[in-house]
Design brief:
By secondary structure, chain A is mostly helical. Chain A has helices spanning 4-11, 15-37, 40-57, 67-85, 118-137, 140-151, 156-163, 167-187, 192-195. The longest helix of chain B has 91 residues, at 189-279. The interface between A and B is large, with 46 and 31 residues.
Chain lengths: 199, 280
Amino acid sequence: MHSDTLVARAREGDKNAQGKLMQLWYKRIYNFAYKFFFDHDLAMEASQKTFILMHRNIGALQDPGRFKSWLYTIAVNCCREELRKNKAARSRSIQDIMPADGEESHPWEESRNRNENPDELLRHVELSDLLHQCLMELNNDQREVVIMKEYEGLKFREIAEVLNLSENTVKSRMYYGLDGLKKILEKMNITKETIGYEL
Amino acid sequence: MNYKPDESILISYLYGELDGQEKEKLLMYFQEHPEELIRLQERANVRKIMGALNDKEVIAPPIFTEGHPREVYFWRSAYFKTVLSIAASFLLLLLAGRLLGTEVNYSRGELQISFGGKRTEKPVLKEQQILTPAEIQNMINASLVKNTASLSSGWADHQKSMDQSIRLNLDRNSRKVDDLIRNTSQVSQDQLRSYVAGLQDENLRIMKNYFQLSSTEQKKYVEGLLVDFSRYLQEQRNQDLQLVQTRVNSIEKNSDQFKQQTEQILAGIISNSTVKKNSY
């Protein structure tokens, strides 16, 4: 996704390299945060904070090869901080459902899906929301691990490094996270058959 | 067999990260405990279902940062500025106090702040004499009389000095006028005559020069004019002569032609008559 040279240049204060890194990693960090919060605004806030901190502290990064885990460490900390701040008001805003300013379409009518069947689109959005809700049912520790492993593709070693835990602890959290998800999916009656989704 | 895999081994197997020997042991365990394999497969199904959750598209917003945090020097810190401003204010007060001679006294229950030295207390009259209106009137009258007398005496002195000054100025001016008239009348008739004679000589000299200059110029001009006229006449004569010559030549030419034509005609007539004679 990035080269060590790019990270090395960013470490030396090259603004272009830092901008390039941000462009490369923004989508990943945003999606990590979005799956963690299931809230666009909070995810944007956490992502932006992550990259501001990256910009400020990249000079202190010792090994460019560990940039990925270093960046996710910042992202996890930012997400936790945002979660603490917004614990009291943890609800879904109307902006998530209504079209944003300057946009005429609803979130489920994204341009990339315009050629698809509207019914299928709606079903897909609903399924995504359901799965998000399932994720949100997990506790924060398990959710972090599940997202990093399942959606961000980090290795257990990298997750352990990000969370400053042992690999066994991470695997254990993953195990119980999947266990918990299984129960949640069963409770919500979501199976391969019920969603009718071709897996 | 007492082997029972823990969660980390099962998860490693699920994600395909288990090494050879451990994997074999686990597979043997699954053979003995197929229900554990089913449970693991259920977790794999959960992964597949959760895999339907896709990424959300997002565009990275522009983030502006101030670059490296600026180093705040000690003398630029708010604390230093506050202390410095207090010290400067205090110093200013001290300086102003020194320049204005400010003194602050506290005595007999009163605080006195004075500028420009110590305040001298005016002597307080212990008893005020009480005067009657008549006495006051008398005092005013006496004062008025005194004032009038002093004014009139001053006025008379002033008048006298003015008169003296005017008289003196008049004398001085009349003396100056007399001197001027006397000087003017002393200019003699000889001086006047010599001045007029000088003027006449000067005029005569100028006129003489003018006429001399004028006659020389006229002479030169007339000579030039005569020369030009003679040249003109010469030129005219030459042109006339050329014209006459040309005319004479032309007449000669014409007479020659006429002669030839006459000869030809005569020859023609003679030849015609000869032919007629022969034919007869």
